[in-house]
Amino acid sequence: MLLTVTNTGRRTCELTYYPIVRFDEMQWAPQADKDTRPQAVTTLKPGGSGYASVRLSAADGSGEGGTTARRLTLMFQGMTPNSDGGATASPALPTKGVYYDSSLTVPYGQQSLDGIAGWWARQGGAVSAASARPRSPSR
């Protein structure tokens, strides 16, 4: 699932690390794909967009505990790992929801779609889109 993150604030903000993904009331946090860490922090000017994605399930069916989610919440990290970035987003999911399992993985935020394209090719997954428009953190 492709995520487009747009800075709707008036100041430049940074898409640090990777978004924390939470479907419905899940009690665990998906792991980040450390191989996708960009060389520099993704900087978003007002109106600018960055990209992340979510591998919902393994193409080989190796994931466990699959379920269909109806609600998605994205939380963004601050300047240190796992810190509160102040912004959240709740993009709409398809009416039928999205299926995910224990292989749920999130890459780091990227400045361009090209940064995500290679990751998708390695994952063997199909892309569906959700738009995340967080509030600009008050930094």
UniProtKB/TrEMBL annotation:
Domain of life: Bacteria
Residue intervals of the DUF4232 domain: 1-106
Protein name in the entry: DUF4232 domain-containing protein
Origin species: Streptomyces monashensis
